[in-house]
Each structure stands twice: as structure tokens, then as C-alpha cells.
């Protein structure tokens, strides 16, 4: 059991040290330019097609859910008459 402790420590150190070597390109300035551009598009749609699809899906679900809730409220307000 004691033999595996140095091996685990070495693996942990190797994982931590190699994780810091990865370099990613900083895309923040590009995104800032995109979102700060004055082109008349609302900020929640400036991300492209994906944002437009998410926005439309959200609106459809919101309107549909509201209509369904009003329908259920109306059905609960006027119960069926028993014969």
C-alpha cells in the first residue's frame, strides 16, 4: 500500500504541471468587438443563428405555456355540469 503513494503523487504532479502548459487563444477582444458593434441588432441576437434559434424557441415555449395556463384556468373556472 505504501509503495503506491509515491506513484500517485507523481501522477498528480504530472497532471497539474501539464495542465498549465496548454495555451488557449484569447478570443475576448473579438467577442467584445462583435457585441459592441452598433448595427441595430439586439445584444441577445448578436451571437448568430444559435442565438436566434434559442430566442425563438424560448418565445414559442413562453407563449404556448401562457396560452395553456390560461386554458387550464378557464377549464378550472367553469367545471362540467353533472347530469
From TrEMBL:
The gene is LOC103591773. Keywords: Acetylation, Membrane, Mitochondrion, Mitochondrion inner membrane, Oxidoreductase, Transmembrane, Transmembrane helix. InterPro entries: COX7a (IPR039297), Cyt_c_oxidase_su7a_sf (IPR036539), Cytc_oxidase_su7a_met (IPR003177). It is found in: Mitochondrion inner membrane. Its main location: mitochondrion. Coiled coil: none annotated. It is a single-pass membrane protein. This is Cytochrome c oxidase subunit 7A2, mitochondrial. Pathway: Energy metabolism; oxidative phosphorylation. The keyword Ribonucleoprotein does not apply. It comes from the Eukaryota. The chain crosses the membrane at residues 53-71. It comes from Galeopterus variegatus (Malayan flying lemur). The keyword Transmembrane helix applies. Belongs to the cytochrome c oxidase VIIa family.
Amino acid at each position: 500500500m505504501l509503495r503506491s503513494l509515491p506513484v500517485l503523487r507523481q501522477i498528480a504532479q504530472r497532471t497539474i504541471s501539464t495542465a498549465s502548459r496548454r495555451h488557449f487563444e484569447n478570443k475576448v477582444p473579438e467577442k467584445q468587438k462583435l457585441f459592441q458593434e452598433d448595427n441595430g441588432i439586439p445584444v441577445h441576437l448578436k451571437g448568430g443563428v444559435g442565438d436566434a434559434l434559442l430566442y425563438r424557441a424560448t418565445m414559442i415555449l413562453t407563449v404556448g405555456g401562457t396560452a395553456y395556463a390560461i386554458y387550464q384556468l378557464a377549464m378550472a373556472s367553469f367545471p362540467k355540469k353533472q347530469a
